[in-house]
Amino acid sequence: MESALNATFEVMTFGAVLVLVVLGLGIIAGMMGIFNFAHGEFVLLGAYTTYLVYSFGLPVWLGMLAAPLVVAAIGFVLERLVIRRFYAAPVAAMLGTYALGLVIREGVRSLIGGLYISVPEPIAGSLTVGNVQLSRWRCAIIVITAVVTIATYLLLTRTSFGLRVRAALENPSLARASGISTNVLYAVIFTYGTALAGLAGALVVPMFSLFADLGIRFLIEGFFAIMLGGVGTFEGSVAGAAVVGALSAALPWAVAPVLADVLILVIAIVFVKLKPGGLIAERRR
Q1: What is the overall mean pLDDT for the chain?
Q2: Which domain holds residue 217?
Q3: Res. 281: pLDDT tops 70
Q4: 267 assigned to some structural domain
Q5: Does residue 285 belong to any structural domain of this protein?
Q6: What gap in Å lies between CA 165 and CA 257, rounded to an integer?
């Protein structure tokens, strides 16, 4: 019973962080028609910002507040200067964002080397549930993710901004003909997506430590989640992240971690082959 509760808690925690990553990745992919291969490095930048603030003797939580803001600012500048030039060429966009991610990753590596740097949890201690000790910080991650997810859903479905976003997502040409500035929406959405990635990096760095390749795992599993959930829907992003997060956290309890990654890839490929539209395909009809 204790092992099952611990496993469930691990699944929920990792799934929560992955939801933040996939929300931003899915919105960018669905609206702009490109897959941002630098998204994992924005997670890394969020983790590095948190560490940098902490290294100056400031509280960890202050670094976590700064991380999404700093990463959003970087994302906005990169979107305006680089990424916006690739919207008409999805293949070039994938190559361009991959190169951009490589530059960011190696830049961080040059600053921290091959080290694994620990960052303390801002909320120490644990909660006792039965005979199991559950980390207070991991509980906080789940709550923060739930709040951000609900806020994002309300933003996209209950506001005039969200209506414009959905219009541009459904038919960009018609949206532009209706007077909606898709270029501005693209900049805002890309910036928001990178902010979510930065927040994910800030939340996860106390659990995984800071190292230069931190973002790679989240990029790969975020891609699997998008494949499973389907591009273009809020629900699909959340559902895909939940499934992949559950598999990523649960499978290593049963098989070797390397084999677990292979199994996740195989499951994603088989599922997409059988259901190309993703988990939430029916809702788009």
Answers
A1: 83
A2: 2-221
A3: no
A4: no
A5: no
A6: 39
Lowest-pLDDT range of 5-9, 88-92, 138-142, 155-159: 5-9
Let me know if residue 244 belongs to a domain: no
Instruction: Tell me, yes or no, whether 24 lies in a domain.
Output: yes
Between CA 157 and CA 139 the distance in angstroms is 27
> 50 is written with which tokens?
């948190």
Per-residue confidence (pLDDT) for residue 177, from 0 to 100: 82
| 104-136 pLDDT tens trace | 999 999 999 888 999 999 988 887 776 777 888
d(CA 18, CA 20): 5
Q: For residue 52, what is the enclosing H or E element?
A: helix 39-55
| Structure-block tokens of residue 40 | 């994992």
Q: Using the 8-state DSSP alphabet, how is residue 117 labeled?
A: B
Structure tokens at 136: 């207070």
Residue whose token pair is 């207070």: 136
* Model pLDDT, residue 245: 77
DSSP states of 209-263: -B-TTHHHHHHHHHHHHHHHH-TT-HHHHHHHHHHHHHHHHHGGGTS-HHHHHHH
Number of structural domains in the chain: 1
Q: Are 116 and 211 in contact (CB under 8 A)?
A: yes
The helix/strand/coil state of 128 is strand
Residue 139 burial (CB < 10 Å; 0-12/13-18/19+)?
middle
